[in-house]
Write a structure and sequence with these properties.
This protein has about 200 residues and is an alpha+beta fold. It has two domains: about 10-75, no CATH class; about 75-200. Helices cover about 40% and strands about 25% of the residues. The longest helix is centred in the middle third of the chain and has 30 residues, at about 60-90.
Length: about 200
């Protein structure tokens, strides 16, 4: 059965494999990059420092290998995105007019196009209204390890500037790290829930 949880060991190795033959390392040999190949029937099993990171046909180009790494990374990144969205929906007590938007497809396009390692998640009202205060959360989730940047703002009137609710928060709340994407989502949900409950009834009730 295929696991629905992201394989972090694979994710780390795949990113390392991609980096080892890209950019300033684009002319580095596979041996120097720590990439090895094992032929199995009509394909190659590709490993980075002993961890399998891709499967390639017998004939391939270096660019196709890079894209192969990114394709497998995308599979794990989608699992991470789904896992985080599921937990945030469960953990956050959102008002009926609020929603969670995961920009997964845009993140996957940027991943395939230039190897971008982040994805955005937005939490806030579905439709902007005249009801205040309004609270908005933006999460930049990194796709190479369970870490993120959390931005949380509140606007009290239509004319007033947004207030940074995490301005005085410790770094671990603004830049959370965890052992898994599930744990990361729970940390983010707790910070959003606790902070908004303290500042406003717009969220968290």
């Amino acid at each position: 059965m295929i696991s629905t949880r992201p394989n972090l060991a694979y994710l780390k190795a795949a990113w390392a494999a991609h980096a080892s033959i890209s950019a300033e390392h684009c002319r580095q040999s596979y041996d120097e990059a720590g990439i090895s190949f094992e032929r199995v029937n009509h394909s190659w099993i590709v490993r980075k420092d002993g961890t399998q990171v891709s499967t390639m046909p017998l004939r391939y180009t270096r660019q196709e290998l890079r894209m192969g790494f990114l394709g497998r990374i995308e599979m794990e990144a989608r699992k991470a995105a789904h896992e985080m969205e599921t937990i945030l929906l469960h953990e956050l007590e959102l008002p009926e007019d609020h929603s969670i938007v995961v920009e997964m497809e845009e993140a996957m396009r940027r991943l395939r196009r230039n190897g971008t390692r982040s994805m955005k998640i937005f939490v806030g009202p579905r439709v902007l209204s005249e009801c205040f205060p309004q609270v908005f959360a933006e999460v930049h989730v990194f796709l190479d390890a369970p870490r993120a940047c959390l931005f949380l703002h509140q606007r009290n009137t239509k004319e007033s500037p947004a207030t940074d609710l995490l301005a005085d928060a410790p770094k671990r709340k603004r830049h959370p790290r965890a052992e898994s994407y599930a744990e990361l989502a729970k940390l983010i949900a707790t910070t959003i829930q606790d902070t908004t409950e303290e500042s406003s009834p717009a969220m968290g009730t």
